[in-house]
């Protein structure tokens, strides 16, 4: 597993329908798992554990020579958990309003995109084959999770729309890239990252709606139960994708809604 990846061999998955489903599932699990850990453990211990497993997942991912299903999605899950904690720290611990934390993470994401583009000349996710490109990729992923967390909390709490209404809002918003691609000639890379950011508040809003108490506008199922349920769905998807990868089945780039395909980037 050690050593640099083969030149041109990407360490991230092709964009398919399964990718988007699994991405949304990880966002929901990350939201409720983070809340469950913070509420049932010492908050500082919970954040320390989240940071530790997050670091471990990235070490495994960066040491891998190619895309390995279990390692990649373990990293995404831990980014989701730790990204939620990072976003919550600004509001819960420091007391920064969600509107300001959302703006802060939006600026941070824009800065990463600018740095990435100036360094590589593209924001495409094709041929993420280690080194600087992979570092930019994961920095962007972490920033999108933090931004999505803050944005979802802003609509649900600060604006008072509640979890279910917020989920419907982001469910509608995630269709915008498809509309933009079809009718307004949005760029493929812009459409991809636009949708990628929205998966975070979409999954988290519906997961919160399931797990939060009825007095908070939720269904009251409990954060632990929701985390377990979404986690089992993730495991099922990861097992299927790992089986398909092991059988040598080509990773198809399915473009449902014209937001999944990203053009090849320059080497």
Account of the protein in words:
With 267 residues, this protein is mainly alpha-helical. It has one domain. The chain contains nine helices and no strands. The chain has helices at 17-40, 43-63, 69-93, 98-120, 131-158, 163-173, 176-183, 188-211, 223-246. The longest helix is centred in the middle third of the chain and has 28 residues, at 131-158. The protein is globular.
Question: What is the secondary structure topology, with strand pairs?
Answer:
Blueprint: H1 17-40, H2 43-63, H3 69-93, H4 98-120, H5 131-158, H6 163-173, H7 176-183, H8 188-211, H9 223-246
Features of this protein?
mainly alpha; single chain; disordered C terminus; about 270 residues
The global form is globular
The number of E-state strands comes to: 0
Mean pLDDT: 87
Q: Which secondary-structure class do the elements indicate? A: mainly alpha
Largest sheet: none
Question: Strand share of the residues?
Answer: under 5%
Helix content: over 70%
State the end-to-end CA separation.
23 Å
Ranges where pLDDT stays below 50 over 5 or more residues in a row are 1-7, 250-267
Question: What value does the Rg take, in angstroms?
Answer: 18 Å
Count of helical stretches: 9
Number of domains: 1
